[in-house]
Design a protein that fits this description.
This protein has a five-stranded mixed beta sheet with strand order 4-3-5-12-6, with helices on one face. It has a three-stranded antiparallel beta sheet with strand order 10-7-11. The protein is about 40% helix and about 20% strand. The chain folds into three domains: about 80 residues, Orthogonal Bundle (Arc Repressor Mutant, subunit A), CATH 1.10.10.10; about 100 residues, Periplasmic binding protein-like II (D-Maltodextrin-Binding Protein, domain 2), CATH 3.40.190.10; about 100 residues, D-Maltodextrin-Binding Protein, domain 2. Strand 3, helix 6 and strand 4 form a beta-alpha-beta unit. InterPro entries: LysR-type_TF_proteobact-type, LysR_HTH_N, LysR_subst-bd, WH-like_DNA-bd_sf, WH_DNA-bd_sf. Pfam families: HTH_1, LysR_substrate.
C-alpha cells in the first residue's frame, strides 16, 4: 500500500499526473488483457479506452502494454506502474468511503396525499418545488389502514381544519363552483338561477362533505329537488362524469381550473358557494416542523395564494 512517511507526503507532486479515469483504464486493461474488455467494464467505447491509455503512456513516458497472441500484456514499465496505480485507486475508494459519514443527510419528507388532490393540483405543479429544492427528497403515499404505513411528516386533509393533535395550514377549496359540461346544458337547457337545477341530474360523492344541501342553504333555496342523483364512490369519478356531461357537480374551483379555462366545463350563472370545508396541510402538533417541511409548507401556501390571485 502507499507509504505515509513524512518525506513522501511533503514532497511536491509532479506537474502532470494521470487522471483517475486514466488509472482505471490501465488497471482494467491489465485485468482483461484487451481494450474491448476494459471498455465494456467502464462503459466506454474502445476508442475512448485507447485514447485514455495513450494519454497515460505519454505522461509516464513509456509503453505500458505490448500486443501478443493472447492480447495486451504489460511491459516491464507496465508491471512497475500497474501495481502502484491499483493501490492509488484502492486508497481513493477508501478515502471516499471514509468521508461518507460526514456528508449532510439528505432531507426527506413523507407525505400522505388525497388522490384527487395529488392528481388535480399537487402533482402537476410539484416539479417547481423539486427544481427549487433538489436537495429535498419527497415520498408521496396514499391513505391506508391504520397501523400499516410509516408515519407521515405531513398529511393533506379535506375538512374544516380542526383535527385533534394536528397543526393545520389552509390551502384552498372553500370556493366551490357548480359545474356542467356544455353538452349537458345543450340537452337540458340553460341555467339562469338556482331553481333551474331541478331539471338536471346531479352528481354526488357521499363521503365528501360538499353537500347539495349546503349549496341550497347558501343560495337560500329550501326545496332543491333534482331530477335524479347519481352517486359515486370516488370523487375523481364525479369530475369525470361532469366532464362527460352526465350531470351537474359541486367541485372546488381549483380542482377544475383547467377545464373551466378550456371550456370543457362551465360555471352556469356563476353559481356556487363558500364552503366551510377545504384542503389543508396538517402535521403533528407535538413536534416542531423540520426545515424541509417549513420550506414545503411555505411553497404550498404561496402556490395556493398565487392561484387565487391569478383568477
Amino acid at each position: 500500500m502507499l507509504s505515509e512517511s513524512p518525506s513522501l507526503l511533503s514532497a511536491p507532486l509532479p506537474r502532470r499526473l494521470p487522471s483517475t479515469m486514466g488509472l482505471r483504464v490501465v488497471e482494467a486493461v491489465a485485468r482483461h488483457g484487451s481494450c474491448s474488455g476494459a471498455a465494456d467494464e467502464l462503459n466506454l467505447t474502445q476508442s475512448a479506452v485507447s485514447k485514455q491509455l495513450r494519454g497515460v503512456e505519454q505522461i509516464v513516458g513509456a509503453s505500458l502494454f505490448a500486443r501478443n497472441r493472447r492480447g495486451l500484456e504489460p511491459t516491464e514499465a507496465g508491471h512497475a506502474f500497474i501495481g502502484p496505480a491499483r493501490d492509488v485507486l484502492v486508497a481513493l475508494a477508501s478515502a471516499v468511503g471514509g468521508v461518507a459519514g460526514f456528508r449532510p443527510e439528505q432531507p426527506m419528507l413523507r407525505l400522505h396525499v388525497l388522490p384527487i388532490l395529488g392528481d388535480r393540483w399537487l402533482v402537476p405543479r410539484f416539479s417547481r418545488f423539486a427544481e427549487e429544492h433538489p436537495e429535498i427528497e419527497v415520498q408521496f403515499t396514499n391513505f391506508v389502514a391504520h397501523g400499516t404505513a410509516e408515519a407521515a411528516d405531513a398529511t393533506f386533509r379535506f375538512g374544516e381544519g380542526d383535527w385533534p393533535g394536528q397543526q393545520a395550514d389552509y390551502l384552498f377549496g372553500r370556493d366551490v363552483a357548480l359545474v356542467a359540461a356544455p353538452d349537458l346544458l345543450a340537452r337540458f337547457g340553460p341555467i339562469r338561477d338556482v331553481r333551474d337545477i331541478a331539471r338536471f341530474p346531479v352528481l354526488d360523492h357521499p363521503p365528501t362533505p360538499l353537500r347539495w344541501s349546503e349549496f341550497a342553504e347558501a343560495n337560500a333555496v329550501a326545496d332543491l329537488v333534482p331530477q335524479r342523483v347519481i352517486r359515486f364512490g370516488f370523487y375523481a369519478l364525479v369530475i369525470r362524469a361532469a366532464i362527460a356531461g352526465q350531470g351537474l357537480a359541486l367541485v372546488p374551483r381549483a380542482l377544475v381550473a383547467e377545464e373551466l379555462t378550456g371550456g370543457r366545463l362551465v360555471n352556469p350563472a356563476g353559481l356556487g358557494f363558500r364552503s366551510r370545508h377545504g384542503y389543508w396541510l396538517t402535521r403533528p402538533a407535538d413536534r416542531p416542523p423540520s426545515p424541509a417541511l417549513v420550506l414545503l409548507r411555505d411553497w404550498l401556501v404561496a402556490e395556493a395564494v398565487g392561484m387565487q390571485e391569478a383568477r
